[in-house]
Every structure is written in structure tokens, then in C-alpha cells.
Design brief:
By secondary structure, the chain is an all-alpha fold. It has ten helices and no strands. The N and C termini lie far apart (about 45 Å).
Length: about 260
């Protein structure tokens, strides 16, 4: 028994951080802000970092997406179209890396993130009610489709905060309440993650054992986070989105200064 505890001890801190990341990610996205530094601190090779993180985060996001979509009751035909557009956007973004330098995207984030944080702080009732019915079916499809492709393009190109941007955009431009917006964000983020994971597995850049083990912690964190979000709704999602947006701004600024 002592030997088992000694063997597990080096993973205790990592497990706790992955659980926390899953909890935050289920509510507002941005779990990678926690997991990527945690894996590096654990000693994981940088070559295996992104692939291992995609494996564990995909497992966790599957739990959150399933719970949110069950409650959101979104149309299956709409989900199919948005998933296809998200996959196409992510693929196009990955192909565009050579054409659009990531530094350009980082500068754009520095400009865009402060207004997002101010907007969330000022609009205390943002996302509390669903006003999507004011749009026609065609308008809603074009808006949500544009968001799915555009943000997934960013995910393939750079990535940090994709789930947060999706939830905010669906709420702001499609009129969904934050619960439905987060449900859509989880599904599309999962599609993008699985697409990237397949590529990393093909290249052999995944520590499968570590990823699966941490995936269980991520699943537990996502279950707890989605449970809280479904219970409290926008009252807990909105402040968490604000926190993640501010954290993302700090990270992007820090990466540019290093």
C-alpha cells in the first residue's frame, strides 16, 4: 500500500490541476491555461505536450458536451451543419499557419480581449435570457455558421480560449442564453479537439497512458463544472467567462513579452 501511494504521489498535483482545469473549462472554456503549464511542470516532453493535453481534454469535454446538449435541446440538423463548419474551419486554420503568422493573431487578441472583458463586466444581465427567436431561421443559421467556421479557424491557427470565444459569440450575435451558447461551444470545441488529437496520434506525439489517466481527472472536473453551470446558469457562467478572458489576455501579453 505504501508503495502504491509513493508511486502515485508525483501525480497528485497534476491530477488536482487537471481536475481544476476541467471544472473551469466546463463552465467557461480556457482549461488549457491551466493544463499546459501543469504538464510542463510535471516534466512532460514539449514534443508530447499538445497531443497529451488534447487526449485528456477531449475526454473531459465529452462529458461536459453530453450534459449541456441534453439540457439545451438544440436541433439535430443545426448541430450537424455547425459541426461540419467547425471541422472545415479548424482544418483551414491549421493549413493557414504558414500564411498568417501566429504573432499577428496574438496582436489581434491584445486589441480584442480588453473590450470583451469590459463588456462582460458592464453587462450584468448578459446571457440570462434567450432572445434567438428574434432572428429568422436563415439568419440564425448564417450567424451561427459564421461563428463556428471563424472561431474554429482561429482554433486551428492558434487555439487558446476557443471555447470561451465560441460561447461569447453565440450569446452576443445569435441571442442564445449562456447555457445554450456554452452547450454549442462544448460540442464544437470537442470536434476541433478530436480532429487535432487524431493528427497527434498519427504523428506519435501523445503520451497515451498519462493522457488517459489525466483524462479521468478531467472528466471528473468537467462533470462537476457542468453540474454547477446547469444548476446556476448564467449567474456562474458569466463571471467565469470574465475571469478566463482576463487570464487569456495576461497569458497572451506575457507570451509576447518573453
Amino acid at each position: 500500500m505504501t508503495g502504491i501511494l509513493a508511486a502515485a504521489q508525483p501525480y497528485a498535483g497534476l491530477t488536482a490541476l487537471v481536475f481544476l482545469a476541467g471544472f473551469v473549462d466546463a463552465i467557461a472554456g480556457g482549461g488549457g491555461l491551466i493544463t499546459l503549464p501543469a504538464y510542463l511542470a510535471h516534466g512532460l516532453s514539449p514534443a508530447l505536450l499538445l497531443g497529451t493535453n488534447k487526449l485528456s481534454s477531449s475526454m473531459g469535454t465529452t462529458v461536459a458536451a453530453a450534459r449541456f446538449l441534453k439540457e439545451a435541446r438544440l436541433r439535430a440538423d443545426l448541430l450537424f451543419i455547425l459541426v461540419a463548419l467547425a471541422a472545415a474551419g479548424s482544418f483551414a486554420g491549421a493549413r493557414a499557419i504558414a500564411l498568417v503568422p501566429p504573432e499577428t493573431v496574438r496582436y489581434l487578441l491584445i486589441v480584442l480581449l480588453p473590450p470583451v472583458a469590459v463588456f462582460l463586466a458592464a453587462r450584468r444581465r448578459f446571457g440570462l435570457s434567450d432572445t434567438s427567436s428574434r432572428f429568422s431561421e436563415g439568419a440564425l443559421l448564417s450567424r451561427s455558421g459564421g461563428i463556428s467556421f471563424g472561431v474554429s479557424f482561429y482554433d486551428g491557427l492558434l487555439g487558446p480560449g476557443t471555447g470561451t470565444f465560441l460561447a461569447l459569440a453565440f450569446a452576443r450575435f445569435c441571442g442564445y442564453d449562456l447555457l445554450r451558447a456554452t452547450a454549442l461551444a462544448k460540442l464544437l470545441n470537442l470536434v476541433s479537439n478530436l480532429s487535432a488529437l487524431a493528427a497527434f496520434l498519427w504523428l506519435g506525439r501523445v503520451d497515451v497512458k498519462l493522457g488517459l489517466a489525466m483524462g479521468l481527472a478531467g472528466m471528473a472536473g468537467n462533470w462537476a463544472g457542468s453540474h454547477l453551470a446547469l444548476k446556476k446558469g448564467a449567474w456562474v457562467i458569466r463571471p467565469m467567462l470574465l475571469l478566463v478572458s482576463a487570464s487569456l489576455l495576461v497569458k497572451v501579453a506575457w507570451d509576447m513579452l518573453k
